[in-house]
Amino acid sequence: MIGGALPESAAAPPVNAHQPTCTPEQRRDELRALQERVVQAAPRQLDSLEKAVQPGGPLAGWQLPHGHVVLAGAGAVALHHLEPQEPLPPLLLYAPSPASSPADWLDLDGPDGPYRLIGWGFVAPYRPGSAVPSRRCIAATEWFVHEAGWHLTDGGMRLTPGAASEPPRPMDIGILFWHPAVWDIHFWVGDDGVPTVALHNPRDPGGGMALPDGGFYALVDGRKQRLPGPRGR
Hints:
Elements: H1 24-41, E1 45-46, H2 49-52, E2 65-68, E3 77-80, E4 91-95, E5 115-125, E6 144-146, E7 149-152, E8 157-159, E9 175-179, E10 182-188, E11 196-197, E12 216-220, E13 223-226
Antiparallel strand pairs: 1-5, 3-4, 4-5, 5-10, 6-10, 6-12, 7-8, 7-9, 10-11, 12-13
């Protein structure tokens, strides 16, 4: 979901391998505070994503790494910024209008607003053997890796597994940009003020464009572990 070369400082949560274990109450409080910060900083509703990212817009300088395409498993359009202004995270996820349908969601340039904020994410640079980023009250196992690859003009991806720099571009696809692998973690807005931490939206409506198998994976004892795909995939 993220695009471009990620700066070392780009919204990477501070790493601290010795953080104390949180109680369930402390975790809820931490997550509640995080959601409050994000929803106060990010626009809750946007009539037009295209206008929002233009100069003078509420998300000026942000990018649409998959265009207006709704992503399967998220039920949302992704927006990203490599160096967002705190407390904004580098990834925001906006659901299309409930008046739209899955048949409308695969058009790179076709808006389906108004859009509603339903989630966000953090990313950090990934290299083989690198330590899992750490946030207070977040387990290391909740982080996953988003594989390197090209973002395409149809809103999808072509993966370049293990590539540390962009390979020669193939001629048979339309390419927007390439990005290296990154650590990734997603949060989904909770009605009770406590977000859900999960790869996929717990209220995934179905539909949207699925990224290729292997687009996200967990690391278990240094080995890649496939993650469940979107609902119905």
